[in-house]
Design brief:
Elements: H1 2-14, H2 23-52, H3 60-81, H4 88-105, H5 109-114, H6 117-143, H7 147-172
Helix pairs in contact: 2-3, 2-4, 2-6, 3-4, 6-7
C-alpha cells in the first residue's frame, strides 16, 4: 500500500503543470481588470483635483473608494499574472490606474466645464459596455460557446443604444 502511494505521488510530480492562462485569455482578463483600474483611478483623481482647486478633505471617501476600486484588482491581477510568468501585465495594470489618476487630476478645466457631465458618463458607459460585449462575444464565438455570445451581443446593443445618442448630444454642444 505504501509503495502504491509512493509511485502515485511520483507520477503526479512528473506530470507537467497545467497552463493556467494562455495569452489570449490573459489579455481579456487584463482588459476586464483595467476597467476597474480606470474607474477607481478617475475617482481618486477627482479627489486630488478637488484638493488642487482648494477643496476640502470632506470628499476623502472618493479617494478611499477609488483606491479600493482600482487598487484591489491589481492584487488579483498580480496573483493571476505572476503564475504564468507575465508580470509585465501587472505593470500595465498599475500604469492604467496611475494614468487614470493623473489624467483626471490634470484634465483641463476649460474642457471639463464645457462638456456636459451626463453625456460624458453615458458615452463612457456605452463605450465600455460595447467593448466588453464585443470582446466577450468574439472570444466566446471562437471557442464555440453559444450563451456567452448572446450575453456579449446584449452588452454590444446596450452599449450602442447608450453611446450613440449621448455622443450626438456631445457633438451638438
Amino acid at each position: 500500500m505504501r509503495r502504491e502511494a509512493s509511485t502515485r505521488s511520483k507520477r503526479v510530480a512528473e506530470r507537467p503543470a497545467p497552463e493556467f492562462m494562455n495569452l489570449q485569455s490573459s489579455l481579456a482578463f487584463l482588459g476586464f481588470l483595467c476597467i476597474f483600474h480606470v474607474i477607481g483611478g478617475v475617482m481618486a483623481g477627482s479627489f486630488f483635483r478637488q484638493l488642487r482647486r482648494g477643496g476640502a478633505w470632506r470628499e476623502f471617501s472618493r479617494l478611499v473608494v477609488g483606491v479600493a476600486f482600482g487598487g484591489l484588482p491589481i492584487l488579483l491581477g498580480a496573483s493571476v499574472f505572476f503564475e504564468p510568468g507575465i508580470p509585465f501585465f501587472v505593470a500595465a495594470e498599475v500604469g492604467a490606474f496611475i494614468l487614470a489618476v493623473l489624467g483626471t487630476l490634470f484634465f483641463p478645466d476649460s474642457l471639463a466645464d464645457s462638456l456636459g457631465s451626463k453625456q460624458v458618463v453615458q458615452v463612457a458607459v456605452g463605450g465600455v459596455s460595447f467593448a466588453i460585449g464585443l470582446l466577450v462575444a468574439v472570444l466566446s464565438l471562437r471557442q464555440g460557446a453559444f450563451v456567452p455570445v448572446i450575453i456579449g451581443l446584449v452588452f454590444v446593443v446596450v452599449g450602442v443604444v447608450v453611446f450613440v445618442p449621448a455622443f450626438k448630444a456631445l457633438l451638438k454642444q
